[in-house]
Amino acid sequence: MRRIFSLFLIPFLVVLLLISCNAANEYNENELNSGKNIDEEPIFIDEKNIHALNLEKKLSNWCVAFYKLRNNQAVWIKKSKPLTDNTKHFFNYVNNDTLLNIPFHYFESNLDLTNSTKEEKEIVTLLRIASFLHLQHNPLFDLKKMNLHPSERVSPHVVLEFINSFAADRSWIEHLITYMAPNANVIRFHFALNHFFAKHPVEQNVNAVKPEDLKDSIAVHKFIVQQLYHRNFISDTLLKHKETIEKLKEFQSYNGLNEDGKLGKNTLSVLMSSNHARYIKGMITLDKLRRLPDSLIQSKFIAINIPSFLLRFYNKGERISTNRVILGTQSNQTPIFSATMKYIVVNPYWNVPYSIASQEILPHLKKDSTYLMRNHYTVLNRDKETVNPDSIDWNKYSVSTFPFFIRQEPGRLNSLGHVKIMFPNQHSIYIHDTPSRYLFNRDARTFSHGCIRTQDPFDLSKHILALEEHAYKDSLPALRKRDKETYLILKDTFPVHVVYHTAGISDSTHQIRFYKDVYNLEAPLYSLFK
């Protein structure tokens, strides 16, 4: 985890500098280098100090129990002295919902501390720490009921352990975010969100009106500049055309789009979307990442993220390769699931699913007797015996009475391409090649019947075989030329996870990226914050 954190140290320092100008977000570089702030001569906090805040009874009882564990000794504040800058920065961080990446006003201890005493500031900060630590191993969202779980806290004993385990070579902020974190990706993603929203603060929803004529270059330029300004991506609206295009490309990159500098429908959509909407996506993704154990992330696995249309192959925490993928259409959505990778098939047959054969191929057969031959299809009966297609009157059959199986022969016309990568599952989903290469250039790639077409399946297969020193690790080019179906059984099986995260981190820039909720699976969660 320390290695992952160090990757974000430099951008995080930039975050600290930017936020220090904002009283609501105040913390800076000194905080990262601070030692212990526990004074050798602390003051004491008793029930009188706690009750002065007029907290709910359960919150007051929690505070009383915590300070009793410390013999009523304060944690950070000094006797007869104002708060140190480092303590102020930490308090401001903990008492800022955006920096904790939680819904606004979610914690019960969300109080205005502007004119509070330093004792009251410490008490409220401890309550928020208790609530934040509870989130590290308990979901924020109920993904079945599509609502928020109520805010809860860890016990006073857990917070005391958190305080006592602080090391002088770390900052309190780093200690808080890493303590009890279920995996390294949670830490990495948390600070990436901090970095993004320090540069591009969450703005009030700005009603955007798109240009009536998208061919009007002046109106389009004005619209792009206004939206980038409203989304806090630029500070000056007097941009020249070339500067606007460069800023638009940067904005497209942050939103997981091709950086072409053009106002297409996907770019138009994200320009009209607020940073608050992006913040919600970040919260939901962070909550999903907390559900993955560190032991899983440190193993070998493949993760396919549906909204980003990307497949990543990892081994022992290191990314081995990244591939663009094509996924299921709205009516044939690729499901979210996990399975075990077991074998690779070079030059596979395609056993056409019955639904595709009866609903899509049969109409072609009724119109064109050469369709099967031209596409290298074979007809099989229920006993899987080959049938001469010329002996069949296709007009006799309908979707509900179609009695045959269709199989496509290996070769360049095969819909699976030259390789499929198999992780058997109840959905009959697998990774495969495709002859339709041009579709990988699209932003949104929902064109399959649910299976996962990948841009470079042979490169992925090569990495899989090489990592386990497979006997055929160097034979893929020769096997491909044979036009004969060949099975390569893996001795080192590993998990494949199809996930749904509408935010992520770029492989190249290590900065946050946001993606379209392509199947509208998170829409009910977005509606909670309207």
Explain this structure.
With 530 residues, this protein is α+β, with helices and mostly antiparallel strands. The protein has 4 domains: 2-199, no CATH class; 217-273, no CATH class; 299-349 and 412-499, L,D-transpeptidase catalytic domain-like (Beta Barrel), CATH 2.40.440.10; 354-408, no CATH class. It has 21 helices and 19 strands. One of its GO terms (molecular function) is transferase activity. The active site is at 432 (proton donor/acceptor), 451 (nucleophile). It comes from Brumimicrobium salinarum. Residues 300-479 form the L,D-TPase catalytic domain.
List keywords for this structure.
four-stranded antiparallel β-sheet, single chain, alpha+beta, disordered N terminus, 4 domains, PGBD-like_sf, L,D-transpeptidase catalytic domain-like, LD-transpeptidase_YkuD-like, 19 strands, 530 residues
